Amino acid sequence: MQEFDLFVIGAGSGGVRCARIAAQNGANVAIVERQHWGGTCVNLGCVPKKLMVYASEMGQSLKDAPSYGWDVHINGHDWAHFIEAKDKEIARLNGVYVSLLKRAGVTSFTGNARLKAGNIIEITPSPLEPDAPTLIVKAKKIVLATGSTPVRLDIPGAEHALVSDDVFSLKERPQHIAIIGSGYIGLEFASIFNNLGSDVELVYRQNLPLRGFDTDLREHMHALIDMKGIVQHVETTPKKIEKTDAGLELTLSTGKVLKVDAVLMATGRRPAIDELGLEEAGIETDKGAVKTDSSFATSVPSIYAIGDITNQYNLTPTAIAEGHLLAEALFNPQGRDWSFETTPKAVFFSPPMASVGLTEQEAVKQHDLEIYSSQFTPMAQTLPGRPGKTFMKLIVDARSGVLLGAHMIGPDAPEIIQMLAIAVTASLTKAELDRTLSLHPTSAEEFVTMRTPDRKVPRAKASTSSGEAP
Ligand SMILES: Cc1cc2nc3c(=O)[nH]c(=O)nc-3n(C[C@H](O)[C@H](O)[C@H](O)COP(=O)(O)OP(=O)(O)OC[C@H]3O[C@@H](n4cnc5c(N)ncnc54)[C@H](O)[C@@H]3O)c2cc1C
Ligand SMILES: NC(=O)c1ccc[n+]([C@@H]2O[C@H](COP(=O)([O-])OP(=O)(O)OC[C@H]3O[C@@H](n4cnc5c(N)ncnc54)[C@H](O)[C@@H]3O)[C@@H](O)[C@H]2O)c1
User: Fold this and answer.
1) Ligand 2 binding pocket mutation candidate from 205, 232, 310, 350 (most atoms within 8 A of CB)
2) Which of 40, 114, 172, 379 is the most buried (most CB within 10 A)?
3) Which whole number is the average pLDDT over 170-197?
4) So what's the ipTM on this one?
C-alpha cells in the first residue's frame, strides 16, 4: 500500500495550494480529484463566471460606442460561440493546475476518495477516469478540501430548476429566466442574463438583496436592479415549478405564476461531505459542515479540513490562505499570516459592488461612528447619458479616526476596494486618506477627497434582536 506524509482530498482552490506548499517544504504529498482540476473556482465558479460577466458587459460598451463616435452594428450575441471559447480557456487552466502539482512533486490520483478507519483512503473510479483501478492508500495526515455543492430548495418540481453548475454548459441562453435567491450567485447571473438580453425575474425572501452587506449598498443595489429592468419579487418565496409544453411555470407565495424558459435556484451551497465516510473516520460535523479548531484540525487530530467544507468564508482567497497556512504549520512553522477578518468581498453585478471591513450596522455595535459618502455619475456614462450612479461609503471610528470599513457600488469597485483593503487591514486612519493626493480623473479619488462626515452615529445600545429574519 502506498503511504504518504500528507494526502489531500479535493484539488480545488484550498487543496491544490495546501498540497503544493507541503511538497515544496519537503513532504511526500498526494492529492485526489474526482471531477475537475482546479475545483469550483476554475471550472464552475469565479473564472467562468467572470468570463460571462465580460461577455455580457461587452454588449454595453458596444451600445455606448456610438456616443463616442463609433459606427457600430450589433448583430446579437452568439452564446454557443462564447461557451466554446470559455471551455477552451478552462481546459487550458485545468492543465496549468495539473502541471503546477507535478512540478511541485505532488502525486496526483483521479477518483472518488472515501475515508476508512486508521487514516486509510479508498479511491474508486470517477467519470474523470472511469477505467482507473480502485486503490487503497494510507497517510500520516489527511486534508479534507472537497468544497461545497449547490442547494436545491425542496419544492414540488425542483428537479426542473437549474443550479449554477448547469448554467456554464447551457446549449442556449434562456430568453426569460426566473432566478430564486438574491445572494452572490443570484445577483451575478441576474445581471449576466439581463446584459445579454434575457428577461430576468428575481425572486427573494427579504425586502432588499444581499443580506449581510451594508444597508446603504443594498438599497443602491435594489435601485440599480430596477433601473436595469430586472423584475424584483421581494418578500416572496417559490412554491412549485411545473413543466408545460411552452416551458416552465413557477408559482410564487403571492399566487403569481411566472411563465419562463428556465428557473435558476441560487439558494446557497452546502459542504460536500456526503460520500466522504466521515462517520467511519470519526469526524464530527456541525450543521452539515466539518468542525475544525483554529489550526484546521477536525475532531480526529491527524485529519484537517479547509475551504468551503468548513462553511466559514466560502471564497477562493480564504480557501487558498487556509491551505497555505495549514501546509506551513505542518511542514514549515515559520510561515506567513493573513487577516481573515478584513477579507474583501465583491458581487460581480454590472456595475459591481465591493466591501471590506465592517458594515455600518456591524460597526455601530462597538464604536461611535463618522460616516462619509459620495455619489456621482461615472464619467464614461456621461456622453451616452446612461443612468446609474456610483456610491461610495467610508465608516470611521469617531474617537481614533481608524478606518473600519469601505464600501462601493460602481464601475471598478472590486479593483478599488482591493486596494482600500490594505488601508482597512493596516488600521490606517481617515487622516492618512486625507493626506493622500488624488489620482485625477478617476472614481477612486473620491475615497481620498471626502472631507465632511454626512453623519455622526453614536454607538448603539446592546440589542438582542438582529432585526431581520434569516
Ligand atoms: C458560481 C460561483 C461563483 C463564484 N465566484 C466566486 C468569486 O468571484 N470569488 C470568490 O472568491 N469565490 C467565488 N466562488 C466561491 C469559490 O469558488 C469557492 O469558495 C472555492 O472554490 C472553494 O474552494 P475549496 O478548495 O474549498 O473547494 P472547491 O474549489 O470546490 O474544490 C473541491 C474539489 O474537491 C473535489 N471533490 C469533492 N469530493 C471529492 C471526493 N470525495 N474525492 C475526490 N475529489 C472530491 C471536487 O470535485 C472539487 O474539485 C464562487 C462559487 C460559485 C459556485
Ligand atoms: N463574487 C463572489 O465572491 C461569489 C460569487 C458566487 C458565489 N460565491 C460564494 O458562493 C456562496 C453561495 O452563493 P449563493 O448566492 O448560492 O448563496 P448566498 O448565501 O449568497 O445566497 C443565497 C440566497 O438564497 C436565499 N435562500 C436560501 N434558502 C432559501 C429558502 N429556503 N427559500 C428561499 N430563499 C432561500 C437566501 O435568502 C439568499 O438570497 C456564497 O455565499 C459565496 O461565498 C461568491
Assistant:
1) 205
2) 40
3) 98
4) 0.98
